[in-house]
């Protein structure tokens, strides 16, 4: 069976205030063409279809168009909700839509109930594991401690239990939306840390033939059977080096996996430039970036006059301007941002305690801080789901 694995469409999202709807529509056209030209048997979409719980109307219309075009191809599609989606909204009408071959899996309780498809070699069971917010689903899975690994492991127990009673030789595909150990994040994914731990081990998905992951925006292979497709479009400059693709996956009669990356359309290249303003304006080696979307980091010791306007004369698509003046390490103005760079909320809070009290938090206090951050994140999720 031939699968096309994609995820993280983020319909309705902009890129540094640039409307991406046309680029997203072009991707949908490319997706449909790819399904037809490569004779795909099933499409899997591993979450974050939308960028937020209540998407703009134009994004909903594009999603509706995508569903109709996929249904017209007669190729089954299996789709799960991600942490950016409202699972309840995305899942409205799932029963009716399923009759058209578009199978929406947004309910945690249905993790162990597969979509059954078949080819010349027999059945393939597709299990959709929507994004599982630990604080909200721990009751459903009967786990005492809310954590990503705990709830995903419980969901996979249901998958394995169902697979165990299927006919011998039934192949299996799991769709999941999670941060799996070994994956490389970018700046454009929403933090899903709980209990200080966001990542789950790839071994959670042992026992199935292929796991189609969503959440991280870079296409990557965790194991030969566990892969991220990544987002089809960039949503932060940290993705400047990404090659945006989908996975074309073939499952043979025994469940062995072969996979090929298929490129997605590039609306405009990204470039991150660094140097003094005069250097960026004069360097002939930067000519290849003049039509790219630009993030410029200026290192001038003193902020120059009208930097954005002057940059735009050479790089008309400059979208982000960062100031990082080159100073000596002992310059007090250079230290604060450097201390915060790359640090988590938990680490910053612990540093603050140490600064105020003269000693960092002990184990009990670290747990209190961690629980407080988890409670805030869970509350944000509940409020977004309720919108």
From TrEMBL:
InterPro entries: Calcineurin-like_PHP (IPR004843), DNA_Repair-Maintenance_Comp (IPR050535), Metallo-depent_PP-like (IPR029052), Mre11_N (IPR041796), SbcD (IPR004593), SbcD_C (IPR026843)
CDD domains linked to this entry: MPP_Mre11_N
Signal peptide: none
Superkingdom, taxonomy of origin: Bacteria
UniProt domain Calcineurin-like phosphoesterase: residue ranges: 1-218
Domain Nuclease SbcCD subunit D C-terminal positions: 267-355
A single GO molecular function term of this UniProt record: exonuclease activity
UniProt entry keywords in alphabetical sequence: DNA recombination, DNA replication, Endonuclease, Exonuclease, Hydrolase, Nuclease
Its job: SbcCD cleaves DNA hairpin structures. These structures can inhibit DNA replication and are intermediates in certain DNA recombination reactions. The complex acts as a 3'->5' double strand exonuclease that can open hairpins. It also has a 5' single-strand endonuclease activity.
Subunit structure: Heterodimer of SbcC and SbcD.
Protein family membership: Belongs to the SbcD family.
Protein name as catalogued: Nuclease SbcCD subunit D
